[in-house]
Amino acid sequence: MALLEDGPTDAHEAVLQLLGTEIDVRGQSRLRLSPSCIARTARYQDPNYIGRICSQLAESELIRDVGDPGTYYEITWRGKAYLEGELELEVDEE
């Protein structure tokens, strides 16, 4: 489950950090956000770019789609483990 040739970028880290934010709303502890919302919150101009970043992170099983594909994402246990330094990402050297 490789991520990228050069490893995670600042955008990958920003998405993971944002989705990894702990909340407690009606018993939910995970944020579920769209690429547009992530882009605005993380101050990225292009939500399509963030959508591609989310797709890469989902392919690596660090986040996952909830609802229709590509509409909302949430962090997975693997994403949490990565943020906590308990998981290293494989780098795809294609």
Task: Write a short abstract of this structure.
The chain is mainly alpha-helical and 94 residues long. The chain has a single domain, classed as Orthogonal Bundle (Arc Repressor Mutant, subunit A), CATH 1.10.10.
Provide a descriptive summary of the structure in words.
It is a single chain. 39% of the residues lie in helices and 9% in strands. It is mainly α. Strands 1-2 form a two-stranded antiparallel sheet. Strand 1 and strand 2 form a beta hairpin.
Tally the helices. 4
Query: Roughly how many Å apart are the termini?
Result: 13 Å
Mean pLDDT across residues: 86
Structural class: mainly alpha
| Overall domain count | 1
Name of the CATH architecture: Orthogonal Bundle
Q: Largest sheet at a glance?
A: 2 strands, antiparallel
What is the subunit arrangement here? single chain
Q: How do the strands of the widest beta sheet line up side by side? A: 1-2
Percent range for β-strand residues: 5-15%
CATH class: Mainly Alpha
Per the CATH scheme, the topology name is: Arc Repressor Mutant, subunit A
Q: What is the gyration radius calculated from CA atoms?
A: 13 Å
CATH superfamily assignment? Winged helix-like DNA-binding domain superfamily/Winged helix DNA-binding domain
- Which percent range fits the helix content? 25-40%
Instruction: Give the SSE order as H and E letters.
Output: HHHEEH
Q: Count of DSSP E strands? A: 2
